[in-house]
């Protein structure tokens, strides 16, 4: 790539991060206030800032976003607590407006509201919205004065949530005794109540709430803003324009490279270095974690049918939903990252033609041991957090931090970062000779180093908040990790790593690989950095975040539309050597990456990205349609593809089994497709339609999540799950068999050589 092109890329990255940081400053400046005192209309103190913050810490320490959700972010079983508390407050306010005493008003139900004559119901709803939307927070005294309806609702909310968390609920998969201490439940209620207040109260000087009128609830006047529709339309227009521009640039790039006949390099008997062979246990452990993750996914999904039971056996107390879902998400990150880190360790000596620094093997083994300690410690800590054993003020240090994908305690988080830094040092010392030999500071080897640096760097952003940080600010930094680290910079690292591998096997020339890599990085980072905002439409952020998020999240789909070309090219590449080519199945797994990138991340991602769609769909089963197709479909298959390319260059050819890989490939792809088409998609559409009509509070209520339709859709996962599990087991057998046979063959070599010498003597 020319110096001009690299300058453009650098400018785009700096400009995008400037916008992202500016947006973060605006989020911090305009976040919903947490009042120092909350008082009744009579002036009596009802709760304080300390109560709200204690409730937030208690909620997060017990699994947080794995037990229901806040502002739409979290688990899909159990209510969205913000929506639930807001609607219950609205009903109590309706009771007050009907002239009922506070205690009777708190018992006013949705059925009572629906039983009113249409005219009366309309009058009551209008008065409820008018009362709740008035902002009674006084920044001068740092005091929030409750309305009569809010004052009537709060004691009833405390009683309701205290009983719910004490007695549990099979319909919500909350085990009995989940929060046994009434004071803890009261504090959590204070937090839920504050999130509901922010969701239903207008920003000062505006006609919409702190959360842009999310969640949808007609009773309290929460309806979508015109800007949500405007920016949704704009995002579609930009998507079409971006696709046209990207296809033009892609074809120009291919024209420059010209037609290059592909001749895959023959596979010589691998002669890996000692440190390259030491990465094989990484892959074995990663696939074991993958099997465990898949099993926990099935158990977590089954809780939607039987609550705290598994085929009639009460296990919710021993293995609560919050624990299985938390482990399911953590293990996804752990096993995928392990494969990618192992690939980085493998590529180091590959870049230098087999050169290996002294002591590299021992350090690779040391890193593996450290990763095992982190994984075991993190999973144990998060379980103890959910179980209430580490729910004190400092429990989050080794227990549960409460946020999705970054559940692990702070100690384990820091340990993982230290492990990544050790990994970075190992990669650097392995490729150092190649860096010195490569005069071009923007060449592939230097790109590999730059991409490797971003891995620990952007995961470290997760240290910028604690369970006590304002939730709007914490969510901003959390998505730096979940979106930027996973969806952008790991993607950059994988792109560079794959360019090395494809050029190594003769699939593409080095200059072509370098140009294609720069083009991919420009597209992914140019759209993805600011595209982080599409996760933050309704988390207490100003409306500018909606505009930026909608615009750039649409552009994020642009590079994914080009993957149709990549599917075709890689299929042609995989078939070019016939069935006997040693690279056939590794390439097929990369074809799967391109396919699911286009479908899971692209089509299913854009299905929920426009603000008007996400307004109704956030917090519903529309989201896991995308997350399953993207997280496993893209990053899972990419991890497997990188693993297979690495193993193909490590294990003896006799240890390889195309038959097992064929079963794994079709089992995993077929199971994932069936899971989405027959289960997640129907459930998501069903809930989405209800959410549009009734609101998030009802779409997430047991009446819907426990309905016959949702149960049927959940049971429909059974066959696809079994197909997927069969593919996963075939992959595990392949990896274990390949390692075992390779070890056996290599141990036999010295004995065979000794026998030859003995006979010659």
Automatic annotation (TrEMBL):
Pfam families: COX1, NorB_cytochrome_c-like
Domain Nitric oxide reductase subunit B cytochrome c-like as annotated: residue spans: 35-216
Name of the featured protein: Nitric-oxide reductase large subunit
UniProt keyword list: Membrane, Transmembrane, Transmembrane helix
Organism: Anaeromyxobacter oryzae
Domain of life (superkingdom): Bacteria
Membrane-spanning intervals of the chain: 228-251, 278-296, 327-351, 363-386, 411-431, 443-465, 485-505, 517-537, 543-565, 585-608, 628-651, 663-689, 722-741
């Amino acid at each position: 790539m020319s110096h001009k092109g690299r300058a453009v890329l650098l400018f785009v990255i700096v400009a995008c991060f400037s916008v992202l940081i500016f947006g973060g400053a605006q989020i911090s400046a305009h976040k919903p206030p947490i009042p120092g005192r909350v008082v009744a209309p009579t002036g009596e103190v009802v709760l304080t800032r300390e109560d709200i913050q204690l409730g937030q810490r208690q909620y997060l320490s017990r699994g947080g976003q794995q037990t229901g959700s806040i502002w739409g972010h979290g688990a899909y079983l159990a209510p969205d607590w913000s929506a639930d508390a807001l609607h219950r407050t609205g009903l109590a306010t309706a009771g007050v407006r009907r002239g009922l005493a506070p205690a009777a008003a708190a018992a006013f139900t949705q059925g009572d509201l629906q039983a009113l004559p249409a005219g009366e119901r309309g009058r009551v709803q209008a008065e409820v919205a008018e009362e709740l939307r008035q902002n009674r927070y006084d920044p001068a005294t740092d005091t929030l004065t409750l309305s009569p309806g809010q004052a009537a609702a709060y004691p009833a909310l405390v009683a309701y949530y205290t009983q719910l968390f004490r007695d549990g609920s099979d319909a919500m998969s909350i085990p009995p005794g989940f929060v046994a201490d009434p004071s803890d439940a009261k504090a959590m209620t204070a937090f839920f109540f504050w999130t509901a207040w922010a969701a239903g109260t207008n920003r000062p000087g505006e006609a919409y709430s702190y959360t842009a009128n999310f969640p949808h609830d007609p009773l309290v006047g929460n309806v979508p803003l015109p800007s949500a529709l405007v920016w949704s339309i704009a995002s579609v227009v930009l998507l079409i324009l971006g696709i046209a521009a990207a296809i033009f640039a892609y074809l120009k790039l291919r024209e420059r490279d010209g037609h290059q006949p592909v001749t895959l390099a023959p596979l010589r008997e691998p002669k890996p270095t000692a440190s390259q062979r030491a990465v094989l246990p990484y892959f074995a452990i990663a696939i074991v974690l993958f099997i465990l993750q898949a099993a926990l996914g099935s158990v977590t999904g089954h809780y939607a049918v039987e609550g705290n039971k598994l085929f009639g056996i009460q296990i919710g107390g021993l293995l609560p939903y919050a624990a299985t879902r938390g482990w399911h998400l953590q293990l996804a990150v752990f096993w995928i990252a392990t494969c990618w880190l192992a690939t980085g360790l493998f590529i180091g000596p590959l870049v230098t033609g087999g050169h290996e620094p002294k002591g590299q093997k021992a350090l690779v083994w040391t890193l593996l041991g450290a990763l095992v300690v982190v994984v075991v410690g993190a999973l144990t800590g998060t379980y103890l957090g959910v179980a209430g054993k580490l729910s004190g003020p400092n429990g989050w240090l080794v227990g549960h931090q409460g946020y999705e994908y970054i559940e692990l305690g702070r100690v384990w988080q820091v340990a993982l970062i230290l492990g990544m830094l050790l990994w970075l040092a190992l990669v650097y010392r392995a490729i150092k000779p190649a860096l010195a030999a490569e005069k071009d500071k923007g060449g592939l080897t230097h790109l590999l180093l730059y991409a490797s640096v971003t891995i620990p760097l952007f995961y470290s952003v997760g240290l910028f908040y604690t369970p006590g940080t304002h939730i709007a600010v914490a969510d901003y930094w959390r998505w730096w990790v979940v979106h930027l680290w996973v969806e952008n910079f790991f993607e950059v690292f994988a792109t560079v790593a794959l360019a090395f591998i494809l050029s190594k096997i003769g699939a593409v020339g080095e200059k072509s690989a370098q140009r294609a890599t720069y083009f991919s990085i420009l597209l992914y980072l140019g759209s993805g950095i600011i595209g982080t905002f599409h996760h933050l439409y309704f988390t207490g952020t100003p409306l500018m975040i909606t505009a930026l998020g909608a615009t750039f999240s649409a552009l994020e789909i642009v590079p994914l539309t080009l993957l149709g070309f990549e599917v075709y090219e890689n299929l042609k590449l995989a078939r070019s050597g016939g069935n006997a080519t040693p690279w056939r199945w590794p390439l097929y797994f990369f074809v799967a990456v391109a396919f699911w990138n286009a479908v899971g991340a692209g089509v299913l991602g854009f299905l929920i990205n426009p603000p008007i769609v996400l307004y109704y769909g956030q917090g519903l089963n529309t989201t896991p349609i995308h997350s399953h197709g993207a997280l496993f479909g893209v990053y899972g298959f990419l991890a497997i593809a990188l693993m297979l390319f690495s193993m193909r260059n490590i294990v003896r050819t006799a240890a390889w089994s195309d038959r097992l890989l064929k079963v794994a490939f079709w089992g995993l792809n077929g199971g994932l497709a069936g899971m989405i088409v027959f289960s997640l998609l129907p459930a998501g559409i069903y809930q989405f339609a209800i959410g549009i009509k009734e609101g998030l509070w009802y779409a997430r209520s047991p009446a819907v999540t426990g309905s016959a339709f949702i149960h049927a859709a959940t049971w429909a996962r059974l066959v696809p799950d079994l197909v997927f599990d069969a593919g996963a087991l075939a992959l595990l057998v392949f990896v274990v068999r390949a390692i075992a046979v390779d070890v056996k063959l290599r141990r036999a070599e010295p004995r065979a050589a000794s026998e030859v010498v003995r006979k010659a003597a």
